[in-house]
Design goal:
232 residues; Arc Repressor Mutant, subunit A; 74% helix; HTH_TetR; TetR family transcriptional regulator; DNA-binding; Homeodomain-like_sf
Length: 232
Amino acid sequence: MATRKVADNGGGEHRPAKRDPEGVRRDILSAAMEEFSLNGLSGGRIDEIAARTRTSKRMIYYYFGDKERLYERVLEEAYGKVRGGESDLGLDALEPVAALTKLCRFTFDHHRANPAFIRMVMIENIHHGRHLQHSETIRGLNRPAIEALETVLLRGQAEGQFRKGLEALELHWQISALSFFNVSNRATFTAIFGDGLFAGDGQEQLSRHVAEMVLRYVLTPDHVGAIAATGE
């Protein structure tokens, strides 16, 4: 069991101070994210998670059931963070081009800042998505992301800015792919070509160009020409 501080009850006696259960859960999930993202499901050790959180294996199992359920909860937490960030972007208040640009930049920058999320997705692909398929939570989190992107596309089409025939799911795939590679293949890309693109200026340029590539794909020819002419 974790070492806990003691509190004076006013009568000279001391008793263990209680830990906030939600705080303990958050600490366990944070440590589990680090452990699983580095070592995978099979290589991740509950003992390491317990040591990092100053709790016990028994307490971890009490909160999460077993190792696989803890792994699933880490996946849910990771997807919840990125989807929550998307929902906070306020895309409905922006005109379509600005909304799509903001979404692209957010996705690229989120993935760059959260490499553990990318590693968790890679690990889950090794498991053929088995744990994601079991999670109603993750399916519920991801549906609104596609719906929000579809709303942006429909507004852009209604205003004559975006081409007809675009599919939100496919565009989501393209944005994710452009942003994912930047993290998933950083080590091999750097080993072959050097790390110039991964310095601050290089990452800012890539983030900007990802948004520009997506816009050039969705914009009507007239609007693409206007952006090219103005340099925006």
